[in-house]
Write a structure and sequence with these properties.
With 301 residues, this protein is an alpha/beta fold. It has 2 domains: 164 residues, 3-Layer(aba) Sandwich (Rossmann fold); 108 residues, 3-Layer(aba) Sandwich (Rossmann fold), CATH 3.40.50.1980. It contains 9 helices and 10 strands. β9, α8 and β10 form a beta-alpha-beta unit. α4 runs antiparallel to α5. The longest helix has 26 residues. It starts with 37 loop residues before the first strand and ends with a helix. The relative contact order is 0.14.
């Protein structure tokens, strides 16, 4: 997906025919309606929470990926496409997480929409899929320092679309970035007390977290989210769990834990849950990350 981090003027007035409409929805009859708030659409709950902390009462935030769903398998609805047609800002993670975003933006046909890709400029870790194709791992927000840099990009994007709110965005952004740095220090101190540094994850969501705090992802169950592992891959995971004497397998509430439970029954490991996306609509990034830290502590301390 070739969306620049800073902004995207989508389908200018000279374009007369819409292409790639999601779900067959047409936005030709939608008339943009402005409110007294900046309308922001965020792809996932963590980004929506970042926007709320920076924007406060000046923004109205809507999150695309619904509770319990995974962005890896999500498809926008026609109603969401129509909503994007009236939005001021679309906040994306990038690194291929929102594989559906480019088509959605084209379908919305909103010439005033700005798009910020918050992972731009971050140190992206590489992954290799089951076909040997190399790509970037998108789960950057699970490292609080990366999250702070994403917040800074959101702050700058809000200033661009609402210059009157600049002082508010600067103040709120600075305060929240300090909170994220404090979270980073809290996690660092807790993980330093872990006796075990290796863990088994459901899919490769926690590599940025592991890199930041000196942990090691020993194995993953699903190399491709939403695609069940082969019997041979399951056997490899079982062997790794026995070799590293892992006490737990970390599943995720957004994806089926059936295979994780079967492997746990085979190895005697517990199934615990790490939540990369939290539980909208009452999602908050910092408490969610503290919950994840508690889950890790149960197995690794």
């Amino acid at each position: 997906m070739k969306l620049k981090w800073w902004g995207l003027m989508v389908l200018g007035a000279s374009l007369s025919v819409l292409v790639g409409c999601v779900g067959g929805a047409s936005s030709a009859t939608v008339t943009p309606v402005r409110t007294d708030q900046v309308v922001v659409v965020a792809s996932i709950a963590p980004l929506g929470d970042f926007v709320r902390h920076v924007g406060g009462d000046r923004v109205k935030v809507e999150v695309l990926v619904p509770p319990g769903a995974s962005p890896h398998t999500f498809e926008p609805t026609p109603a969401q496409v129509r909503r994007l047609a009236t939005a001021d800002l679309l906040v994306l993670n990038g690194v291929g997480l929102e594989f559906w975003a480019e088509k959605m933006v084209q379908s919305a046909a909103n010439p005033n929409l700005r798009v910020v890709v918050t992972s731009e400029g971050l140190d992206i870790m590489q992954t290799v899929d089951e076909e040997g194709k190399v790509g970037g791992n998108p789960h950057v927000w699970l490292d609080p320092i990366n999250a702070a840099l994403q917040v800074a990009r959101i702050r700058d994007a809000l200033i661009e679309v609402d210059r009157a709110g600049k002082d508010i965005y600067l103040k709120n952004g600075a305060a929240y970035i300090e909170d994220l740095k404090a979270l980073d220090r809290e996690i660092m101190l807790t993980v330093a007390q872990f006796r075990e540094k290796r863990f088994v994850a459901f899919h490769s969501a926690w590599v940025y977290f592991a890199r930041r705090y000196g942990l090691e992802q020993a194995a993953v169950i699903e190399r491709v989210p939403g695609s069940e592992p082969s019997p041979g891959e399951i056997a490899q995971v079982v062997e790794t769990i026995r070799r590293v004497k892992a006490k737990a397998i970390f599943a995720e509430p957004q994806l089926s834990s059936r295979v994780a439970e079967a492997i746990a029954a085979e190895t005697g490991a517990r199934v615990l849950f790490l939540n990369p996306l939290g539980d909208p609509p009452d999602y908050a990034y910092i408490p969610t990350m503290r919950h994840n830290l508690e889950q890790l502590e149960q197995a690794l301390k």
